[in-house]
Amino acid sequence: MKPTNKSLCPIYLNNAATSFPKPPGMGEEVASFFEKIPRHPGRSGAGAGDILFLCRTELARLIKAKDPRQIVLCKNATEALNIALHGIGLKKGDMVVTSALEHNSVLRPLYLLEKKEKIKIQIIPCDTQGRVIEEKWTRAIDQLSPRLVILNHASNVTGAVNNPGKLLKDAQKKGCLTLLDASQTLGLLEIDAAETGADMVAFTGHKYLLGPPGTGGLFVKEGIEIEPVFVGGTGIRSDLKEMPPEMPGRLEPGTPGIPLFAGLLHSLNWQKEHPVPLKELETLTTTLEQGLVEMGAQVIKVENHRTPIVSFCLPGWDLEETGYILDKSFNILCRTGLHCAPLIHTYIGTAPEGSIRFSLSRFTGREEVDYTLETIKTLMKANDAG
Amino acid sequence: MTLVNIKKLEDCIDGSMIFKYSFNEKIDETLMKKLGEKGKLQYYPDFPRPFFKITTADGVQVKGIIGDDNFEVVFPRTNNRERKKNFETNLEKMIR
After folding, report:
1. Distances (CA, A) of A357 to A289, A314, A360
2. What is the mean pLDDT of residues A262-273?
3. What are the pLDDT digits (tens) for A107-164?
4. I want to staple B56 with a disulfide (CB 3.0 to 4.6 A). Which of A108, A196, B39, B85 is the partner?
5. Does A325 touch chain B if contact means CB atoms closer than 8 Å?
6. Which parts of chain A fold into alpha helices (H)?
7. Distance between CA atoms of A162 and A104, rounded to whole angstroms?
8. Where does B1-96 show beta strands of DSSP type E?
């Protein structure tokens, strides 16, 4: 029997890359911006009607920052991470500890700093679910006294969530600077910057915050000094030869993507009124995971705290080919490969090719999960027959 | 049927290259079977949009969907230019 996609719409299971759909009206909010006369973009601390200020305020509320000016608006998490890593003043010989589940947006800036500034990097392994091995992390911090530690809040490959409240807080107590990559979690999980022990939190707007691509940010705790990586016009104190000292403008040169942040603000406001149905989302994720296991897929099983991701391989099917068939034959959009996180696969058993990743969102329905499972069943049967 | 475009999609880590071949008409079973004569054909007609994959004797892989106006071809790392040229010569004969 052929699986039937009743809606005939593509089934979108690539939310860990970028979420879809967005809240109602977000697209119109962005588009409407181009119909209005552009006023001064405004900077931090501007009036209540200022989109950037309101966006900052909402983001600060989400991560329980004391002051909206602690939020630096960026175009994505990669930019935020680069601002943090290149601006925090790492010097020759400084040790940086991070984990095997990091995305290339962390790893590549670190490799560049290793080459240019001669910093040292220690990568802490993760377990078979994609969670940092806590004992190894703690031991590395005790023995290596790193200047900076960077932790991925949740793996974008398996969805396993780490415990920054322990891992970062312990490091912070020992005098390390701490940076949390919350790209996969902000908008989905509660994050309290102070409670998690994060001096800096990098995030993106287009995943679980449901905003447009081109939005993101960096939380910087009061007292943490970051030197500007990019310099230029700020709209204020234009007589200075250097970037002005005021945060966040110090780290935000150039005209910001105001229409996009208007879209993000729209989504943040919508989410305030429509909290994520976490329980239902978890049930749906578990249903998908369990269904795949029962069909004989090689699933990276994740226990306890997780984001709505299921990673797996299908015996007898080439990875890229499976992605192609799911898309072209069955109208299911997902992602295959390394997912820009090349190191984790050694630990979860999916090296060197990677995995097929289904990532759900609050908008994913039970019917879509059922269709997806029926599709995988068809692929398994077709393979048996072949 | 006319070949209207050849677009390089990717250089793979293993050195192979992926190209997309687009036509002015939809691919049907006749073309698929002609291509299949050059190697091993795997065909899944029961999929909602039937999928086929052909692996030619010299390792070139063709994958596509019946009813689409394009398919993808993977040329292995070694002698990929020569293989591509041979593939295109054969393809032109088939669609003529």
Report:
1. 11, 11, 10
2. 97
3. 999 999 999 999 999 999 999 999 999 999 999 999 999 999 999 999 999 999 999 9
4. B39
5. yes
6. 26-32, 51-62, 77-87, 104-116, 134-144, 164-173, 193-196, 258-273, 278-294, 319-328, 344-348, 366-385
7. 18
8. 3-11, 17-23, 39-44, 51-56, 61-65, 70-75
Strand order in the sheet with B39-44: B3-11, B17-23, B70-75, B61-65, B51-56, B39-44
Contacts of A239 (CB under 8 A, 6+ apart): none
* Top-level class of domain B3-91: alpha beta
pTM for the full predicted model: 0.94
pLDDT of residue A44: 42
Largest CA distance in chain B: 36
With CB atoms and an 8 Å threshold, state whether B48 touches A328: no
Tell me if ipTM is over 0.90.
yes
Q: What is the pLDDT of residues A153-182, one digit of tens each?
A: 999 999 999 999 999 999 999 999 999 999
Question: How many residues does this entry show for chain B?
Answer: 96
The verdict on A204 and A330 lying in the same domain is no
> Minimal Cα–Cα distance from B46 to chain A, Å?
7
d(CA A326, CA A380): 13
Residues A336 and A227 in one domain: no
Backbone angles phi and psi of A91, in degrees to 5? -125, 170
Q: Does A384 touch chain B (CB under 8 A)?
A: no
* Segments of chain B scoring below 50 in pLDDT: none
Banded model confidence at residue A3, pLDDT cuts 50, 70, 90: low
Q: What percent of chain A has pLDDT over 90?
A: 90
Note whether A324 contacts B47, CB cutoff 8 Å: no
Last residue of a domain, one of A225, A246, A273: A273
A318-322 mean pLDDT: 93
DSSP class of B18: E
Cβ–Cβ < 8 Å for B20, B7: yes
A321/B48 CB distance under 8 A: no
A207 and A324 together in one domain: no
Domain identity same for A241 and A194: yes
Helix axes B29-36, B80-95, angle to 10 degrees: 130
Closest alpha carbon to A176 in A211, A210, A201, A144: A144
User: Is residue A257 domain-shared with residue A295, that is, in the same domain?
Assistant: no
Q: Which domain holds residue A159?
A: 26-273
B42 touches chain A (CB under 8 A): yes
Query: Of A273, A293, A322, which residue constitutes the final position of a domain?
Result: A273
Please, which pLDDT band fits residue A47 given cuts at 50, 70 and 90?
Answer: very low
**pLDDT score for A6:** 57
Query: Which of the four pLDDT bands, split at 50, 70 and 90, describes residue A84?
Result: very high
